[in-house]
Amino acid sequence: MKEVLIVGGGAAGMMAAVTAAREGCAVRLFERNEKLGKKIYITGKGRCNLTNACETEEFLGNVVSNPRFLYRALYGFSNRDTADFFEKAGLALKTERGNRVFPVSDKASDVIKALTREMEKAGVRVCLNSRVTGLLAEEGRVFGIRLADGREIPGDAVLIATGGLSYPSTGSQGDGFLLAESVGHAVTDCSPALVPFETGEEWAKELQGLSLRNVEVTIFDGKKKLYREFGEMLFTHFGVSGPAVLSGSSRAAKAIRKHPLTLEINFKPALTREQLDARLLREFEANKNKYFKNALGALLPARMVPVMADFCEIGLKREINGISREERGRLADGLRHFQMTLTGLRGYPEAIVTQGGVCVKEVDPATMASKKVQGLYFAGEVLDVDAYTGGYNLQIAWSTGRAAGQGIASS
Question: What value does the mean pLDDT of the chain take?
Fold first, then answer.
């Protein structure tokens, strides 16, 4: 019986463990923490957005790094296969806005319980509080692992599924990158991704906690558009966050290391410039005897009005009936093209995923097997693959974990 050693008890590691064990392998899973799936517990704000129900081609369009590498894995184990797996494991699912799939219970812990049950059924041996610090390898083949306490565990195959660098409190501290490099694998430059931005404007912190809904955000590198999304954003004490902004960090991560970028907010994306001007005329007529600061309640949150007034260079105590056509035009442009300066990304403790990882050119996309070291496999966030928010990253973990488990069993 093939002895399989899996390093990492997250989404990819657990899926690979179930898969390989069901195929007749003797599987041991080593997790450095005191419990399995610590990162799963906090995904989807504790609800666990475990996949996205869109078509596979649309799914691949939401993958930021190396989507072509994932083609075989995603078609081999799709979002529908994931839903089927968990429902057969006794976990009822529901689909919400944006095709996001959650447990009906809204409890991430139920996802971990389902995986744990399936591992137990398949005979997987779980070793908690067991940090792997080294690979046993010679002559281009891996033959085991070394634990932090010095013990050496022999095995026929080793899967590295340790995650990346994001949320280090969950145990993702780059161990897998070090293990990969120790046997000659390249690790690409890494960056926090799906992470809030820091901004250059001091007034941003005065808006801390203000949420903007149904806005369109665009990120520019000079005149080059890097990203555009419609949805919700949030002002923080350091800059901006929220669903529409987080995914932009994945597209902007490389550019923002070199220089600041521009965030443009369209507060009224459903209106054309002409429609917005007509709307302003109606609002101004209805509020013609008020000050500017008291006349925009139907257009902007109250806390945003002084900032917009400053951006458009219109005095807060200007009377509406004294606003010129040119000033009204500046307001219309401000509502459609409000700009902020993005100066950097927040760190890994706030990042949902890591951008960068084990170079996928050195990994077989069908089996997740190393092309450099026989018997070595990779799955999940340790690879140089990442996607937007919405269940895509967890599906990548399930798909690559399943591919690795099958690849190990059939080798």
Answer: 96
